[in-house]
Amino acid sequence: MGRWKRMGIFDKKRIIVVCFFVFFCQMIFSQSQKFRGYPQKDADILSGFSCPPKGYGNVPFYWWNGDSLNRERMKEQLEILSESATDGFAVSYIHLDPKVDVENMKDGYGLFGKTESGRPKIFSEDWWNTWSWFAKECASKNIGLGLDDYTVGWIGNGYYSDELQEMAKFRGYQGELNIQSVTVKGGTTFTYDIPDKFLTAVVWPGKTDLTKYISGDKLLWEVPCDNSYKVYIISTKENHLLHPDIGKEYVRVYFDRFERRMSDAVPDGMNYFFQDELSYPIKMGSWAEDFRDEFERRKGYDITLYLPALKEFIGDITPKIRLDYCDVLMDLAEERYFRPIYDWHVSRGLIYGSDNLRRGKDPLAYVDYFRANSWYTAPGNDAPSTGSSFLQTKVSSSITHLYERQRTWLEAFHSMGWGSSASWLTKQMDHHFMAGGNLVCMHGLYYSTHGGWWEWAPPCFHFRMPYWPHMKRWLEYTERLSYLMSQGTHVCDIALMYPTESLQAYPEANTKITFDQAMKLSNAGLDYDFMDYRSLQKAKVADGCLHVAGEKYKILILANMKALHYASMEKVLEFYRAGGIVIATGELPKASTRIGENDPVVDAMVREIFGLTAGEVVRGKTTDKRVNTSGGTGIYIAGDDLVEQIWSQITPDFKPVGGAGKALHRCIGERNVYMVMDVPKGTECFFRATGKVELWNASDGTIIDYPVVRQTEEGTWLLLEKESDNSYLFVFSPGIPVFLPEYRKESIQIYHTAITGVWETELLPTMDNKWGDYRFPASDMIGAEARSFKHCAAALSPDNWMNPYFDDSGWKESIYGYGEQFVSYFKSAGESMSNISDVLAESRKPGKILEFSWQFGVFDNPGSQGWHGLKGKVSDGFFILDQGGHQIYRSMVYAPAKDNYRVEVCGIKPDFLLVDGKAVNENLLLDQGWHQVVVAYIGTPKTEFKFQKGAYRDFRERSAVVFFPASSLTPEKPSTYAKVISTRWALGDHLLYDPYGGDNLMWNYRFRSAPGTEELEITVVGQDLKIWHNGKEITGKNVQLLSTDRSGICKYRVIIPTPRKDAGLIAFSVRRKPGYQGTAVICEPIKIKTGKGILEAGNWSETGALKHYSGGMYYRKEVVIPSIKSNNKVILDLGEVNASCEVKVNGQDVGIVMGSLYTVDISKQVKSGKNHIEVLVYSTLSNHYQIIPTPYRGDGVAGLLGPVSLTVWETPSLKTKVPVR
């Protein structure tokens, strides 16, 4: 509603008409997935920008792991997501960890690990039934459904890729070379047993064919006396990757199978298959049974005697052989594998995306990364939080441009963590759109988070996030960006050679120069495409430009290109002779496919362009710029002035004064669209476009005229006034611009005030735990809770411990459910610990308290999980043996009756297990009562464990010693799919430890509550609850026992008789049940019911129980503003916010803010005098995850951080122009 209220009634009606028309057209024409999201060269972007057609929304990875698939749950999720700008799903499955899930890997696995197959298992009959049902449900919502082949497509994981290998036609197919080399001395006799599948034998130097010296199965050759030689014995081995039918059969066993199974859901429901980390391991040495013939047909010579060049340098001809071989290899891979799969998708008008290994930074991935990744309708890559994937996305978008593919898939953003802020998210998304990404795939959409203990490179950005109500609006922002930046044709002046040829010829070549120069260009606002050799060779030269696939390049850059195909070299020279600009840096080409190295023809071509040869560059020679009679320019740059050289050669398409900024330009019909970012505030920028200039706002679809500083035939100068993190969408169209002097005067600040003091607050819980996503067991909405407590035994507490001003800094703070279980001791490995007396003597000394939870183990130490976060596993070992010495633990155990008992030892067996000072075995008789237990481990290893993202592996030795009644069974380890997260011990009737031996039964606890606390629900293992609020005891009917059970768990409802607006101090005492000490007494979080409270701007996690609160919070305040005139602009600056906010003034919507600049124009909503400001802030899930042992939890910063201020400026208002058809 916010954007409607910011516009006039007439504008509103026009937008409603436009949106209704677009919606009507979609209903009639766009139900089918065919060609959905396929852009147009001359699209009517005015109407499409306001209400984008289907196909430009979010297509997240939908991870179907963590819990058994439930149709009701899936349907609920679909309903929620269909109401956002979400157009499809790429269903994904995770992989196990070979170093953690060892038993599951014993029969082998593909790439990084075996697929965690989910429930029902993927491709089982139950799974297909669920898939077909869900496809129909998606089709009914106009949403596409496809599979991401991540893990399931990896060879070795037992699915369709392996099914191909078992086909008779592929078994035994010879598809890989085995090149063995032997150095032989002159004058000797060389003998060799001919291997199976022998191909040839050759000697280098000299290219001597030794096959004529073979008799039977033996090679016998008399080595000439004049020299030493290398003999190469070449045979083949089984590999089916280049079989002529590989692609056809792949389609049959994979994609066709989906089409058949989805049946009538195909037209409206099938789309967005995705190729993830492609397991198609072609490489230097791949072969086909007809490779020799195909090579000779395509290159004109027999390659067999030259095959040693693939392994070693055999002379000047080596780079030629390697380049020719790779070219033919990729021809066959394309024709036989990539093309059939691509054609299947294109013929159905589907989006087929990719994120393949090495992500563009290794040109040799799949032998030729550029060519391999050109066979998708949406080439792409992932973008992790660990750093920008700008260059990787630039490679992907260059492929899209040069091969005229539909879109550029952007997998965004894995591994950011649960504290992913909206401002970071917006900045990163804009950053990758600047690189050419235009199909948004939010990495994290989890079917389940399994009690908060399941994740895969989190976060999940969708409905579980507190800021989901704002995220839905943000997805509309990305949808508009995706639509706008997909249409038309990309425009740039520069082609930067992608260094495939250089690395194929010289695998040791350095790519750093190429990619460093690329970033320098980007950061200076000089856009470019990476160009591969095929695109260069097919380019047409005209008007001093390279024309290919609708692109037009004025400059070609060779960065450290040591080798080129000869046809590429000829095209470079043709371009130069026709008036083009060729710039080189690093090494110059020294080899080609003509004759290899030391080619005078190539040297002459290079010299003509640059004035020197590759060899002369190596020897340190320099040269001046070369200009021929056609105006062609050749520049060799030995230094670091590439950007300056380009600016001196052409009128750039975009140039920021000061040289800092990025730009991306698309021409769409008569309009020129520039996306600009990273320009310092107040910078004047030149655009090589003219006409009327508008600023298009992708957040709400509105358009305003943008003032021009000046405009000439050459172009337009604009003043950019936002902070550099913010992006702009400038649209140039035919018409007369508005000039800056006519547009406004210099703004004058006439009033400014800091908004300080307390705000009225009200919590808005968001964590719906219906399905147990946040905690088991499933429950209703989770609001404010107390989860950590200062605690002390009553016997050690002073009389005033319940006073709000009591200094409890000396008290320990712990999480609910974790209790004091043992006293632990450490003795260095060099000290003697050889007998029971030594152990007992050490155990009588003062030690440290070991806390753990029988359910969750040692806090923040759940044990190995595998890749990318928690997987619902809890180690049974609560003794972590990593100190590098002697580790001793002492406690008391209570035997409820004189009986036989059993000791269960998990993990490392203790060196000493003493009960009442005596060594015991597995079975023992105990009298009723308390018994001292001492457990000692001698000479434990010193082991480091790093709590980190990525691989969650904890291989520290562990142990547990647990006492059971002899008649009881050992509890089974719960499945990771069970609706409980636990050690096995919590599921059995084990005896309890108590280091106090039943003493210190009264315990005191303190915590600061939440603002506006009205009621508490407290669940404890104990009795006699006494409670104080701000030092005043709460008694009588205000403390109600709601329930109790046989295990001693009591649930209380506590009503605060006189609630306070601020966060008060809660103190309470409990008579614990023996065996539950410290915060183990508190078996659930204390639920806090709140009303309206007060809180100053700042990090709410620093306010008591709000430390663990993830959700929404209203901040409300009355602000008095002096007299306001019609030409005043009133700006509310919220300072910093985490994670997102929504502003209302005087009950009127102002807008949602998710960017890094949390300022809003409230001119239309304010009035002179009193004004009511309301800011609704949603946090991330980081606060909730602070007690869950994930390295992705984040820092928990949340709220209206401030500082908040309000400023009134005297300046004309801006006119808003609304797009109409």
Automatic annotation (TrEMBL):
InterPro entries: Class_I_gatase-like, Galactose-bd-like_sf, Ulvan_degrading_GH. It comes from the Bacteria. One of its GO terms (molecular function) is hydrolase activity, hydrolyzing O-glycosyl compounds. GO terms for biological process: carbohydrate metabolic process. Pfam families: Glyco_hydro_106 (PF17132). NCBIfam families: rhamnoside_JR. This is Uncharacterized protein. It comes from Parabacteroides goldsteinii CL02T12C30.
